[in-house]
Amino acid sequence: MKIAILSRSKRIYSTARLVEAAETRGHEVRVVDTLRCYMNIVSHRPSIHYRGTKLELQDAVIPRIGASITFYGTAVLRQFEVAGTFPLNESVAISRSRDKLRSLQLLSRKGIGLPVTGFCHSPDDIDGLIDMVGGAPLVIKLLEGTQGIGVVLAETRQAAESVIEAFMGLQANIMVQEYIKEAGGADIRCFVVGGKVVAAMRRQGAPGEFRSNLHRGGSAEVIKISPAERSTAVTAAKVMGLNVAGVDLLRSNHGPLVMEVNSSPGLEGIEAATGKDIAGLIIQFLEKNATDKKTSTRTKGEG
Residue 222 is part of a domain; what is its CATH number? Predict the structure, then answer.
């Protein structure tokens, strides 16, 4: 197969591993800088140009689109889809998962466990918002934040009011969630490929840090997940319409709760913790599905 990987750099661990896995299995791979693509949007022969030349048609495309370039990245991915290239994850599914509020609303509609989450616009509703999620301590999240940036634990009601007012004063969109104390600053990353959890790790925040992101100094170890956690992760990925996803769960006293569904999950932490060839499993999924266009397009309905 001819495979394109949309990525800002060949040197990123996940991109390099996908290239390695694809080439090992005999595929032709090209890494394409998403922001250097430009498009000819016409009715009969839509095309993608890259660094001054027209890209030849690819059999499959693997989007590794960072959160900061979601709008342009999904536009480029749509152009690949229009041209007939099989996407590992579809553009509409990526857009859906990147909208944190929308994704939680879709998950809640399917009855998936979530932390109690509140959202409001007016400063006059801050008291009601705090009460809605059970009071302090609580977690305040920027809707545009990634990798733990823009996530604040407010341990008192006064602190919560101050932080929420400050974010609102900056015209920032935030949501407020209950703090799951029993999780102990840890979460579970379930890596889903083709409707199956192929690997799982427990991420523990650094001492004094409630955020478990590895980018913030957290540690990771392999973990055995329960049937309920496995089912929750698979269902969450399916609701988002993602063939490959990193589903982050919290263990609570009332079962697994989904924190986030990531459409471009990193491979470094999960491969190091589990010793599994996740990149190879992703390429195998493309081999089984890209030629037959089996998943094109499951996610046309915006739901």
Answer: 3.30.470.20
